[in-house]
Amino acid sequence: MNRNLQYLVILFVIVVMGQPVMAQNPIIQTKYTADPAPLVYNDTVFLYTSHDEDDAFGFKMEDWLLYTSTDMVNWTDHGVVASLKDFNWVHSDNGAWAPQCIERNGKFYLYCPVPNGLGIGVLVSDSPYGPFKDPIGKPLVKNSTEDIDPTVFIDDDGQAYLYWGNPNLWYVKLNPDMISYSGEIIKDTSFAKRKGQPDPYHYQEGPWMWKHSGNYYMAYASTCCPEGIGYAMSKSSTGPWDYKGMIMDGDPRSSGNHPGIIRYKGKWYVFGFNYVLSKKIATRHSERRSVNVTELMYNADGTIQKLPFWTSTKIKQLGSLNPYQKVEAETIAFSEGVKTDQATEWENESPWNKGRKIAERFFVTSINNGDYTMVKGVNFSKGAAAIELSVASINGGKIELHLDSLKGPLVGTINIPQTGESDLWRTHNAPVKNVNGIHDLYFVFKGEKDLFNFDWWRLKSK
Question: Which of 19, 206, 209, 305 is most buried, judged by most C-beta within 10 A?
Fold first, then answer.
């Protein structure tokens, strides 16, 4: 089967049959995400991403998003974690490109390129969830027009480094405070472009630095365009670097790519992006990207095994999902049609006085007939008697619970009456058929349009 025909078959299955071929990829379907920057902290993957707006054609990027997972397939949306507005010296609402977050001594440092050649900024928080604040009120790095795509790395001796750049790779030594640097900014001679000479490293942009088994690795968007993911190895955090080849070749279906690489629960993973969701709804190219992930494998000599393009990859779930505790509705492995949103809740809110901020509520919205969300690997070890969930009804409708596929066994139906109040949250209970074992659970929405908003759910055992 040729590549174009294979792609059409994949789209047919997704669009017509209503079930994704590879449920984990793209891992986020409710928003357009790019430039993945994963961080492992407290046994959780914190995935920071840039954010393409729904109406983007060129790059329209105003903020950075956060998702978390403990099993690599179900991802919880935490909404906007930071934006260009957090830098009071930035006077543009577009240009929130590839970030990276790192933890040191209980603080979290988010390194962000800022628009209009202003450099690379840094935000700091006491929590990986934010809020993030600007500690210096100016760029951390302002070196050249190449100040984009920062990656940060702390070596075994405690020395931290910041790398960045397009079309060259630059780096500098960070001070222990992580918000200042010492010494000169250095252009890496291994990756440096030389006019009229071959470019054996094929470096473009989007560097990602890590260490494994005594080897230092630099992965990056390579060989534009389309961009794949290339990599080089060294015995030092500052080179010299030895080009080793491609982790993933470029593919005509995706003009760009951007690696993010982590070790989690004994396995290595590489993140990147493609355009498969945007191409489902439009033939015209737009910068509306979607983050993907797959497992990364090393050879005995430390080199990396080459991977197929994103749409041919999937990963195994680590563990299972506990349905007997509150599960946020925006915890999703795959979905169709819906979006996610967030709203601030205030104490004694009125048109004249909002009072004290109580919480930030995240929820699933834009729910219409036939839309669905799915969570993978739900562990029904205690059986099931009922489901409890929180929704804010608009036109009302119902939620059908199916096992393992959209048309799998129906184990429960929750009827949601019409209220017309999208901010009035009510808890509903409904019986479900007893279930045992581990199953994928589909929430299939039925009704007309603008049915309700969906906040959380929980199973009750027998």
Answer: 206
